[in-house]
């Protein structure tokens, strides 16, 4: 009787863990925090005019901006001030208009394409963002930073194979940067490339042992590979940081059962009863039923 119940529990819990809404779960749960994205202030490089520095609050108003344009609407510095003013005030359409005007006057101005790419990221126009960062690389193929933001644009656009190419190019020059490693891992995870995802999630926890996304993802992929010993290790590491996560505890119980470790499964079940009685009740027939 208990053998049948074990099979039922494993099927139900592993299904909850891996099969139900599988694509959506990977898109959300295995996705890194989007800390690469931060607005065009990130890309203000080597500007001589202090008003263009990201550390200086612009003193311009709509009136003073219009006066700048009236004085000389073809002056690159004036156009940059105007574009940055509109960007900082979230008037993206006007910011794009004036940054684009600069590209006509200075077609090899890399900083402007960075700014355009950042604005398009903020607007979630990932195809345009991709075009902007590719333009940077057309001008200077050795601009390593562009590969990172190109990877982000591809990732957000759902083009995971190309995001991997861009992030791998960046990682080859600047190895194991936290954010890039998480995006690489998530890209491979979304493509169901478990071995590659595991490789990068392991690097992620070497960088940050408390990275919960990486710990959960490693447990998840080892479970999918039926490597229960490793899955248990990472579920336990996750719970050592977030001990009140009932879903992770339930998955740990599932892994213990699959690994025939019924003693630890029972101990974890008692903990789950205290943490989430309703979730624990789903397992009560196995742990408290008769032979």
How would you portray this structure in words?
The longest helix has 18 residues. The chain is mainly α and 291 residues long. The protein is elongated, with a radius of gyration of 25 Å. Helix content is 71%, strand content 0%. It has 17 helices and no strands. The protein has 2 domains: 113 residues, Tetratricopeptide repeat domain (Serine Threonine Protein Phosphatase 5, Tetratricopeptide repeat); 158 residues, Tetratricopeptide repeat domain (Serine Threonine Protein Phosphatase 5, Tetratricopeptide repeat), CATH 1.25.40.10.
Summarize the structure.
The chain is an all-alpha fold and 291 residues long. Helix content is 71%, strand content 0%.
Gross CATH architecture of the largest domain:
Alpha Horseshoe
Kindly report the average pLDDT value: 83
Order of helices and strands: HHHHHHHHHHHHHHHHH
Structural class given helices, strands, pairing? mainly alpha
CATH level-1 class of the largest domain: Mainly Alpha
* Whole-angstrom Rg: 25 Å
Main pleated-sheet profile: none
């Amino acid at each position: 009787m208990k053998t049948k119940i074990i099979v039922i529990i494993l099927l139900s819990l592993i299904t909850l863990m891996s099969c139900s809404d599988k694509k959506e779960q990977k898109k959300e749960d295995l996705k890194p925090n989007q800390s690469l994205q931060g607005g065009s202030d990130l890309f203000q490089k080597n500007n001589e005019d202090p008003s263009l520095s990201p550390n200086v609050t612009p003193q311009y108003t709509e009136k003073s901006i219009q006066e700048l344009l009236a004085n000389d609407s073809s002056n690159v510095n004036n156009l940059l001030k105007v574009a940055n003013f509109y960007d900082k005030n979230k008037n993206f359409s006007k910011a794009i208009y004036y940054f684009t005007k600069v590209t006509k006057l200075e077609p090899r101005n890399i900083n402007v394409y960075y700014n355009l790419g950042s604005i398009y990221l903020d607007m979630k126009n990932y195809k345009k963002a991709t075009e902007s960062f590719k333009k940077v690389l057309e001008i200077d193929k050795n601009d390593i930073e562009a590969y990172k933001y190109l990877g982000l644009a591809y990732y957000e656009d759902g083009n995971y194979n190309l995001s991997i190419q861009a992030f791998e190019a960046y990682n080859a020059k600047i190895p194991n940067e936290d954010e890039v490693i998480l995006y690489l891992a998530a890209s491979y995870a979304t493509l169901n490339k478990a071995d590659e995802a595991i490789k990068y999630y392991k690097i992620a926890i070497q960088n940050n042992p408390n990275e919960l996304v990486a710990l959960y993802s490693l447990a998840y992929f080892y479970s999918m590979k039926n490597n229960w010993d490793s899955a248990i290790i990472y579920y336990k590491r996750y719970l050592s940081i977030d001990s009140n996560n009932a879903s992770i505890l339930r998955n740990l119980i599932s892994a213990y059962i699959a690994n025939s470790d019924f003693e630890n499964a029972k101990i974890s079940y008692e903990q789950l009863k205290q943490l989430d009685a309703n979730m624990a009740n789903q397992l009560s027939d196995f742990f408290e039923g008769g032979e």
